[in-house]
Amino acid sequence: MAKQNRFEKISSQTQEEAMKSAQATKRPGQTKEQTKLIAQGIQKGINHYKKQQKSKSRELNKKLNKVSQTQTTPRQENNFSNIKNQKNENKTSLPWLILLISWAGFLTYFYYSTYL
């Protein structure tokens, strides 16, 4: 049997899956020893795949944590939206102001041209 690291323990479920797939791919005239070796190879492949997935998920979690820490706080977002609303209010009051000034100018012109 191959040496196993003391931290690498193969679960019984993995062993069963490996044995089932080794039995499924068994060739005519294949001995039990050969089947066991194939099952061990499949177990190693499954363990390697699981390790890769764990490391990928750890890296993804690290990236997500970094992104969540660098995002702006809701208070800052509210401040930005308040500033935008104030700018929009100024834009909507400007046409009314120009209209009032033009009417005042028209009325003063009419008043001075008629009565003077």
Tally the structural domains. Answer: 2
Give helix % range: over 70%
Structural class: mainly alpha
Distance between the termini: 118 Å
Q: Tell me the number of helical segments per DSSP (H or I, 4 or more residues long).
A: 3
What does the average pLDDT come to? 80
The backbone outline, from C-alpha atoms, is: rod-shaped
Work out the strand percent: under 5%
Helix-strand pattern, N to C?
HHH
Number of strands: 0
Gyration radius, rounded: 39 Å
Biggest sheet statistics: none
**Low-confidence parts:** none
Fold and architecture overview:
With 116 residues, the protein is mainly alpha-helical. It has three helices and no strands. The chain has two domains: 9-71; 75-116. The chain is 81% helix and 0% strand.
Q: What distinguishing features does this structure have?
A:
116 residues, 2 domains
A few lines on this structure:
The protein has about 120 residues and is mainly α. The chain is about 80% helix and about 0% strand. The longest helix has about 40 residues, at about 75-115.
SSE topology sketch:
Elements: H1 12-24, H2 32-70, H3 74-115
Helix pairs in contact: 1-2
